[in-house]
């Protein structure tokens, strides 16, 4: 601790930037007045991220820190994913959004209830500096009739410039009912709200300053037209299904487009057609990212001949010399559906499917270039490490186990994935206990075992639970999703997994639920509330009511005063982590 106290405030603030909200608050909140002031200043210029907190840390924040900084926070992230009930709890404690008067950016992740989302957005009308709104995921799909009111409230936010609504899923009819003109929105993303061209005409009319846009567009009808030219749009990201006539109509109305990212499904547009479209309608285009997914249809050519012909159309001077835009095709000869995927290089899309049997060809001079992808679905075999030699940036992993030997491959993968945070396992064999014998990555904090056996439900017994508790995975686990046979073992997991902050489970003796799906008695929830501290938050999952979520508060007594010696002792483990990280940082910048 003395080592930290000796550092200048400026250096400490610089080092704070390397840590997330959780680690900072666990280490420093309530340590002394100096660090309280530094935290206060830090969150005036950085995001207050409430996505991954334990319940006791949130209680400390809302009681001690938030009242001091609420009128200074510029960026806020709320979530119900790893902190179920947090948005509702925040509002119930009086921290309504209109009190965050300096807020510039708001991110909402997996908000469970429409009423909560609506309240938050409505309160944003009183924020004079709000420019960025992100609704990343939204779980309540039953209140579609109120989506229009929500959209009109968003369009009425007078300072909003960046609007990401990818978390909303609805149909184009809702967009056609927008009746408020936004004079401020310049960046809009609605990739999970499919549109046609008539719908886009209406949307553009009520969003006239739009510069960057992302959507899903389906346009097959001859009566579907984009009626207004949009000279303001400079960048568009598009998921497209439709006719070439619709594509022509779209691009001819965006004469100033400089960036186009497009994914097409079952739309055959070869290099010659794309060259004509770009040369005719997009004279200012500088960045072009294309992904085409096609199903090979039997004709006189083989699939390899068809691919060679397709690649040849992308080898003209327009592609290779004027723009240096290269493409790659990959396909699986054993795929019964004969799918072909063509994409520009480097790869610029969110997900990538790869099989050990995949073949590739490209127009790039060096075929070994541009093998970098963000989210990959692939099979694991002897060729895996030749294609993907490093997994140092892997954060999330969903694994399918087909045979016992796969666990040895999984161990090899764990050894290479130093930053792996989330693990989801599904198996075709009843061998899940084998997982707990592995030496897992020390970074794994989230484990999903809900569907551990692919074709039926497996409920963990008392012996299984204690095998998990005593494993490396169990010792470091913070978020666990699991099926449990007996309710008493829920208490065992909470009591003995000391780092666990969120437990998501289905219990086989949840008799009230399984006997009567619509039962409002919630007998098991009431049982848990009786045996657990009232400071825990216990709720059923809104979309999967067989699942119960417990957001755990390990501070079962009254929250201790900030100057408590006991509270300081609770910081010791996190401070040790922070000090170690600081040393690594200093060694790095000093070249040691």
Description:
Helix content is 34%, strand content 21%. The strands form 3 sheets. The chain has a 13-stranded mixed sheet. Strands 16-17-18-19-20-22-21 form a 7-stranded mixed sheet, covered by helices on one side. The longest helix has 19 residues. The C terminus is likely disordered.
Strand order, main sheet: write it out.
Answer: 1-2-3-4-5-6-7-8-9-10-12-11-14
Largest sheet data = 13 strands, mixed
Q: What is the strand tally?
A: 22
Shape: globular
Secondary-structure-based class equals alpha/beta
Binned strand content: 15-25%
Poorly predicted runs of 5 or more residues:
557-571, 588-592
Radius of gyration: 27 Å
Proportion of helical residues: 25-40%
The overall pLDDT average reads: 86
The rounded distance between the terminal residues' Cα atoms is: 23 Å
Tally of alpha and pi helices: 23
Quick structural gist:
This is F-box domain-containing protein. InterPro entries: LRR_dom_sf. Helix content is 34%, strand content 21%.
């Amino acid at each position: 601790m003395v080592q930290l106290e000796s550092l200048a405030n400026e250096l400490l603030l610089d080092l704070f930037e390397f840590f997330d909200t959780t680690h900072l608050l666990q280490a420093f909140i309530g340590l002394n007045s100096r660090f309280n002031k530094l935290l206060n200043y830090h969150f005036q210029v950085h995001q207050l991220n409430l996505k991954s907190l334990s319940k006791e840390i949130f209680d400390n924040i809302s009681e001690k820190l938030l009242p001091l900084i609420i009128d200074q926070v510029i960026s806020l992230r709320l979530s119900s994913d790893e902190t179920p009930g947090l948005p509702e709890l925040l509002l119930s404690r009086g921290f309504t959004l209109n009190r965050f008067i300096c807020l510039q950016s708001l991110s909402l992740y997996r908000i469970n209830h429409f009423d909560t989302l609506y309240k938050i957005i409505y309160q944003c009308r009183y924020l004079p500096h709000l420019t960025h709104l992100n609704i990343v995921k939204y779980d309540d799909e039953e209140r579609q009739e109120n989506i229009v009111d929500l959209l009109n409230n968003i369009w009425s936010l007078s300072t909003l410039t960046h609007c990401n609504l990818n978390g909303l899923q609805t149909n184009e009819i809702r967009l056609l009912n927008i009746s408020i003109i936004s004079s401020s929105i310049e960046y809009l993303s609605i990739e999970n709200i499919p549109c046609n061209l008539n719908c886009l005409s209406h949307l553009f009319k009520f969003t006239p300053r739009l510069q960057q846009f992302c959507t899903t567009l389906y346009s097959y009808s001859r009566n579907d037209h984009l009626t207004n030219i949009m000279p303001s749009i400079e960048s568009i990201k598009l998921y497209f299904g439709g006719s070439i006539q619709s594509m022509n109509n779209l691009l001819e109305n965006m004469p100033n487009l400089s960036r186009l990212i497009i994914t097409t499904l079952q739309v055959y547009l070869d290099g010659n057609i794309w060259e004509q479209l770009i040369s005719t309608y997009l004279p200012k285009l500088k960045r072009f990212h294309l992904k085409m997914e096609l199903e090979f249809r039997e004709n006189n050519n083989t699939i390899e001949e068809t691919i060679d012909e397709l690649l040849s159309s992308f080898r003209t001077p327009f592609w290779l010399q004027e723009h240096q835009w290269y493409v790659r095709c990959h396909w699986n000869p054993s795929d019964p559906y004969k799918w072909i995927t063509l994409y520009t290089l480097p790869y610029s899309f969110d997900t990538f499917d790869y099989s050990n049997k995949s073949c590739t060809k490209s127009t790039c001079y060096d075929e070994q270039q541009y093998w970098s992808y963000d989210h990959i679905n692939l099979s694991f075999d002897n060729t895996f490490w030749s294609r993907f030699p490093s997994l140092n940036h892997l954060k999330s992993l969903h694994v399918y186990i087909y045979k016992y030997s796969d666990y040895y491959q999984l161990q090899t993968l764990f050894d290479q994935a130093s930053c792996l945070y989330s693990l989801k396992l599904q198996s075709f064999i009843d061998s899940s206990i084998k997982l707990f014998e592995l030496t897992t990555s020390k970074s794994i904090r989230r484990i999903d075992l809900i569907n551990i056996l692919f074709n039926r439900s497996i409920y963990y017994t008392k012996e299984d639970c204690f095998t998990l508790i005593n494993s490396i995975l169990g010792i470091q686990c913070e978020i666990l999703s699991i099926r449990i046979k007996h309710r008493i073992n829920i208490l065992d997991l909470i009591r003995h997994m000391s780092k666990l902050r969120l437990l998501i489970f289905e219990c086989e003796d949840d008799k009230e639920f399984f006997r009567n799906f619509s039962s409002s008695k919630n007998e098991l929830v009431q049982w848990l509330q009786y045996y657990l501290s009232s400071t825990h938050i216990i709720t059923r999952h809104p979309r999967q009511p067989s699942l119960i979520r417990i957001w755990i508060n390990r501070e079962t007594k009254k929250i201790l005063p900030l100057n408590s010696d006991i509270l300081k002792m609770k910081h010791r483990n996190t401070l040790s982590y922070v000090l170690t990280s600081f040393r690594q940082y200093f060694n790095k910048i000093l070249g040691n």
